Amino acid sequence: MTLAGKIGLAMSATLGLLMLIISLLPGWTDYDLVVSEQANLPPAIFNNFKLAGELAGLSVDSPYASRICLLGTDELGRDYLSGLMRASLVSLGFSLGIAVLSILIAFSLASLAAWYGGWVDGLVMRLVDILYAVPSLASIILVLAIFGAGQAMVFVCLLGLGWYSEIKVLGIQIKIEISLPYCEALRGMGAGLFRTMVKHVLPNLGSVVWTLVAMRLLVLVLQEAFLSFIGFGPSPPWLSWGILLRDGILSLDHAGHRLFSTFAVMAWFLTGISLFLDGLAKQAVVKR
Amino acid sequence: MLVYLVRRIVVMLASLVAVLGLAFALLQAAPGSPFSGEADRLETSRERLAQEHFVNKAFHVRLMDYVSGIIAGDWGESLQYPQRSVWSIISHHLPYTLLLIVSSLLCAYCLGIWLGVFFASLKHRFFGQLMVMWTVLAVCIPFFLLAPLLQALFGVQLDLLPVAGWSSTRGSERAWVLPLITVALPLIAWLARMSFSLARSYLASPWLRTGQAQGQSSLMVLRSQGIRPLLATLLAWLSPAMGMALTACVVVEPLYGVPGLARYLIDACLHRDYPLLMGIVLVFASLSLGISLLADLLSTALDPRLSPGFRKALR
Amino acid sequence: MNIKLRAAFFLSLASLIVSACTIGNAGSAEFSLTIASEPTSLDPSLVAGSVDVQLASALFEGLVINDPKTGEPINGLAESWTLSPDKTEYTFKLRPAQWSDARPLTANDVVQSWLRVIDPASDAQYAWLPVMFVKGAAEYHRLRPEASSKEALAAARSKVAVKALDDKTFWFKLAKPMPYALSALTHPAFSVVPVHVIEKHGRDWTLAENLVTAAAFKLKEWKPKEKIVLIKNSNYWDAENVKINQVNYLLVENASTAWNLLVQNKVDWINTVPFDKLDEARSRKDFRNSPLFSSLFYVFNLNDELLNKRLLRQAISAAIDRQKLVDQVSRGSYIPAYSLVPSLAANSGIAETTFDLEKAKALLAQAGYPQGKGLPEITLLYNNASNHQLSAQFVQAQLGQIGVKVVLKSQEWNSFLESRRANKFQIARSGWIGEYLDPFTFLEIFQSSSPLNVGAWLNKEFDALLAKSDTMELGKERLEVLAQAEKILVDQEQAVIPLYFNTTNNMIDTSKWGGWYENIIDIHNPRFFYKM
Q: Is the predicted ipTM greater than 0.90, yes or no?
């Protein structure tokens, strides 16, 4: 593993850990806690870490008076930091999962196509052409209209519309790879599809595969933000970076720290993970 | 080769019908009607006619009606805009979206690949990390954040470029620059990162190490020998890239007031404007399929190992 | 004198000179504004959204038009009118007006324009307006052109009670006495259209090269999704008082972009302020926040076993603090509502605060669910716009305080309308924009016969009060009857929860442009604008 890769891993791990520690601190509150008296509080650092209840003029015995909102509260008086944590968990978790799954599916199909060639190759590639040709936005909106836009349906749609994007790129890489002499030799030795692909081709293409996972992750985050913007993001109690960015823009003039902190957390996590994946990719470059 | 081409074109036409069928099925399954509004009280004659056309007939009959209509040159009438035909909408607005998509793809392929290859040739690990970081930033700033930022900077503060208003009016071409940047940026980042990764692995491969051992610089060997396989691989991404550019246009066009076709896409979905949506899908689907074919042909020409006959000849 | 002051001095001097010069040739002014969506059509009979109405009111005129200050009906193409003693027959005397192609405008044009909208073969979404008002129109519009004989259609058409008594006198009969009829006649569905041009060009009659109008402006060009340019119609009957020579409607869908254009002085008027510029806008002198004749409310599905309980509905309503909702959701732009009908000059509404947490808890206990015990979750349906989502979350939290658990369900617009129409909801977001300046327009949608009565509200007393109000004269007594009906709907039975009255944020410098007034219908006809 390269140094940068390790740094990347450390970056995402430390922020994750920090969030975990914060959530264990006393005075920590849950995002679902709406205290409308405490709406639109500034970040705690601007008011000497006073209790939110004190700032909002709540009586001391109020059950919600004793919390500290590190990033302030939103329009409904919810703790913004816990919202940001929930959004990070949802966005990062789903996006990472979907990215890996998409590339896995793409790799399997591309392997099949490259291995058998002929009509199998033709079938897979023409199917992929058809999927490319449907404007994905139209299908997402219609699918969400059919199955309901609620909850985290948007991530299911993103998986449904992402798994085929990289099949052709991977297909070409695999085709080139199995035309190399070592694959011919493997075939001569009687190695099957699974063994050739998983044990030999996949490690050799590791560099490309990891880069594709990293880019798919970024594209997913972009697409999700975009869908949230036009109103098709996850609906409460789910939350995502896209929703926070959209709302962050709406409150840019009076609470710019929301947009800024969301973006900072996003960039930190994504840079960390991208550096880590790039480290993996670099490690996988084979010196032949 | 000719046989292959003809076969591909036949398959392409069949795929087009499949895409239309898919879009039609989705539209059918979606609840709601093109004429529902918040204050809907009376059924108009147009609604009754559309009901007959689009709802009461069997699915395959309607699809066949539609396809035969298209073959006869009849694209239908928009339901949302009662006085405009689908063809007039498409022909009026398509050029803007097309220009935006094509120019951003060109930008992305030229600039992105060049950047990736150049950074890879520098070999120092610092540049690798720089590449990672800027691509992260470029992709994860959403369009709806980037556009107002660019407008505020180049439009309002510096007064260099118009905030909006790229249109058929002469002299408004300068307003095309900001939309282009917004659409192209994530594509450039994607291609730069991919070509960086590919070029890095090429540099480690025996066929480029020879050149390097002979004293050529990394950039030279990449340019002379690496570029063909690189392009062959990345061209396969042309169709999804077009899809991404189209999606970007949907948001970017209203943000910059570009009178393009992509803005009609969401509206047509939300209003269940069947004829208009089908028309738009037809246009972009044929474009995408055409580009796929073109990209396959180019890839094969660039790298003979990808041609259908190659494996057989090897054995 | 510092530089700024000096500049200001010279500027004001220059503007004095300029304004002195323009007194002579006032009318050289060009006005630019943004519109937020593509008009459905320029045909006034096909209007659907607010942009369509805005354009139709500039391009076409009816017998009466909206007063630019109050929105009340004033003379348009009609010079004067009389109402028969039984309050059903209107006789309009037309002005000596002509079309922009110099053809004189006759009473027959009015007859044909109205019949065109009522025609069962027409596509007019707002056909229901003339159908509701004009005697015989419902019978004609109900026919199916494809299923009826030509004779039957012609017979029904001739029975529609609109007539040209002579070239300049138009007569029509109301289906029944309707005191607010005159206000409804300002709607574009009643505007007078050039039937002779429509006959000649068919569907293409609204193209710039064909369009003929009898209003202050005519169409110069229409570039879809780009701009619409209107220029002064020199054949207009009041042309000498039209000071604007050209109006540019720029299509800008995004509010931030519109804002940027305003800041750069590229447009003179924008009618939305992006949410994140609200503070900045409020500090500017061209900011105009004014109430609209529009109301937002939640509607209960009374077919639902649970929400059929009146006490539960009242508990829910009493638990929502509208003032706080407005402060937090709209940042203080909207007006908290405890009644359905926004207050008009004539009608002060019944807007007493009914928010009372203790009362809500008591009502909930009375309904049989003390502290919400034993109460199943209630689903709240809304369409997926961010402000509606925020309101819904606020309401969810407020109801949580008394122990009512609410589940939020968001749907995309068309699916949402379908669910609401099909009565598949428990509580649904709803809203209404008044179509004429009378409380009746808000109450009539809850009549048991109305297709818009989505919550299945049936109340004989309510229906009877509405019917009674129709027979009365405009005035205080009638408004009291309507207020009584509203009380039954909102206070007694709580079939709806009023949340807030919408307002509009316009940005226009009224020290630069005269003739633009804040009004409750938010229709601003450029005919009245002039440069200061």
A: no
